[in-house]
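writing this on my phone so excuse typos. first protein, seq and then structure
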Amino acid sequence: MNQQDYLTQIDQVNARGPFRPTWESLATMPQPAWYQDAKLGIFIHWGVYSVPAFGSEWYPRLMYYRGTKVFDHHQKTYGPEFNYRDFIPLFKAENFDPAAWLQLIKESGARFILPVGEHHDGFKMYASDFSPYNAAQMGPHRDVMAALHQAADHQGIHFSISSHRAEHFWFFNGGRTVGFPTEVQDDQYRDFYGPAVTNTTKNNEQAYLLGEQGIVPTAAWLDDWLVNSAEMVDRFHPATMYFDWWISEPAFRSHVQRFAAYYYNRAREWGCDASINYKYDALMYGTGTLVQERGTLGNIAPRLWQAETATARHSWGYTENNEYKSPAEIAQVFADVISKNGVFCLNIGPQSDGTLASEDVAILKALGEWNHVNQEAIWGTGPYKFFGQGIQQQAGTFSEDYHYGDDDYRFTYRPGALYVFALAPNNRTTFTIAALKKDNDGLVAPIKKATILADGAPVATHQDDTALTLTTTQPVAGNMPMVFKLALA
């Protein structure tokens, strides 16, 4: 099917389906029931950029921008005649074992996976009718998304998918102005490098930082984005679908509505609900699921939302010598997110041969062990009257440099039980929670019994008009957040 036929099909489906490309109609699609209690998902950034494994998954852009560390590294390591396309044959994925990946992911406690189907670099990780530059025809010579989908189904894990194609409109524009010949300048490779539209004739770090500013997608690109997005939907029937930020560009507005209606109508044909993950105001509130990249919300949200971060601090894709977070730091953020009615999505970045980084494996295993002993406080629970106490984060993206201390607690709740996450136990025996003081509006039901959830050890309680104090019989070992269960009368 060519693009024009696909556009016709999209409009035909939207004309006969229950959802129309209007915000009022799209708002009638409920967030999926399974998603409401998913709590944890695993994001997967894997692609050609894992071959150079330097800087970040933005290597393909920065390798053409003077003044960046990636540019200097690329020139020194590969030279000016080595283009990004030349990495594709080196992306072999020879050790890719989707069954092993999904077994580990299931053991982590995750309820869904969110692999990137196409990143800004335009290389599709699935068989596509619209570009030969895909993993089924080049590089791994394997439909990676289909393999992950099959493995996820086998484990009972929901399969979602992420598209970053919108940004491909300008992502390689540095290759036009870098000052020496590149394939980006050659129209015979336009199908791979995309339009590479530029808003400046300069090629330096400042131009890179300007990014997409001042660039407006063309009508042809908007149609291309819509068709490629619809192809993902039809090939994989994703449980949710994620888009990166540039679809918030005003020119995308009507095409986003057409896509949302198509996706939601198709989901109803499959007999299920669906939701689109979006950033900023790319969708109207109530028509999808807001996401916060490397950030959080300041308080409990009335509508389910999603936060995502990576195991690594400086990249979403695999890079050598990256700095990884500790399992405790990740568990702290997880607890914060679910206390505010959120879903936590943790990213891993596989190596180019398909091997998971040892750091990712260790983090997933540690998180899985912690989730297992504390599952009662996570799944089947919801927010309490307030999220907890301690650091009051500012809502927003790229604001995750949190440093939790003794005073930081997060709450989850089910009728009859309040779960208190002490985010930083710090080898203490005494935990003082001012938010749960006597006669406060926070806790009105009497506490029948207090225990450490992981092992059922008894905990002494004392509540007065200053705080609720919980005292354990011995210091808590380890640095992962500790969960108290307060059984309420």
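second protein below, same order as before
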Amino acid sequence: MTHSRISPEDKRYPAGKTFAWGLQHVLTMYGGIIAPPLIIGSAAGLSAAQIGMLVTAALFVSGCATLLQSLGMPGFGSRLPLVQGVSFASVATLTGIASGDGGLPMVFGAVIASALIGLLIAPYFAQIIRFFPPVVTGTVITAIGLSLMPVAARWAMGGNAHAADWGAPGNIGLAALTLAAILLLNKVGNASLKRLSVLLAIVIGTLFAVISGRADFSGVLQGDYLALPGLFSFGLPTFDLAAILSMLLIVLVLLTETTAGLIAIGEIVETEVDSKRIARGLRADMLTSALAPLFNSFPQSAFAQNIGLVAMTGIRSRFVVAAGGAILIVLGLLPVMGRIVASIPVPVLGGAGVVLFGTVAASGIRTLAKVDYKENMNLVIVATSLAFGMIPLVMPGFYDQFPGWVQTLFHSGISAACLVSVSLNTLFNPLKPKVAAARQP
């Protein structure tokens, strides 16, 4: 009797381990998921209580989006271990809209309209998978990892550039302690400890911060314990053509970044990611983005932070990520739990981020090692694309004098590297027609 092979992403684990590993995913991306609502809410002139509502809404919607992406339903969801969250790529545009006369209702209207258009074009956008041979996928995955390193550095320095202890040796030392704990657990631990190394290191780092007076949990019990998401709490959406067009460009960036995330996680999981699977992933992305404003939240996209966790721990099950999505929903419904997680010192997350984000870049380098560089332009393609991907990181104001659409497309190192590598590969390595290949004996 033959048994069909179970794909790595479909493997199931005991509930205890599944939720413990899912919690690792939540802690890895928590800082990134709450930043957009904090920034946009401040730009809209909201009160602290209203901004808190945006944060819990972001957690709730991101949890629902992660469940749809990982578990899937007919036509929607890649069924891959990919975490969804509020996209940072949309923050600049949404902040500009929110600070104007239209406020959040205009923001939500622009998000709904642009995401619905994105939902319609998703199947066509997914066809670009044929433009992603290893020379492109390796470059994009490497760029994803390198683009995240400034995030880890900022977290390690304290997270707030205006704080008095920004970059203090104590903050960086706390990040170093967490990093050392991850490395030690991976060196001397058994398989179970290695798979939980990030979670355990964060606990160790937090305990040390409490002992040294660098963590404050005093505000955990202040505020609501239960908060159900409201519908259109800031008023019905308004639809402004200029705002919709500006967000439509962001949607193209989100589609590009999520496609890159799907390809990256496919490489790491070692499972096939074809145009149909990408289309389902993009549809899930756009559907949850279109529905997010109903619950007072913003566009969703794949979170690159968590790709590194999958690569480092070797836990490639989508059900683990789904458990993380369920935890996000609980955090959105129980603000008290969210306040506990929010009290974890940012430098602790920075220490974990160094190895997680570096792992993504290393995965890309591993893919690039398989590329043939003899008598072709592949080395130039990789070099030029990575250079464009690094420009927004080393010189953030590089495109400030360019038109807005150029700034939108190239402000992200991931989208810049993706666009340049696909363009150069198409130019120097033209696609071979399948018909010609079929005629060969």
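Residues 15-43 form the longest helix (29 residues). thats all i got for now
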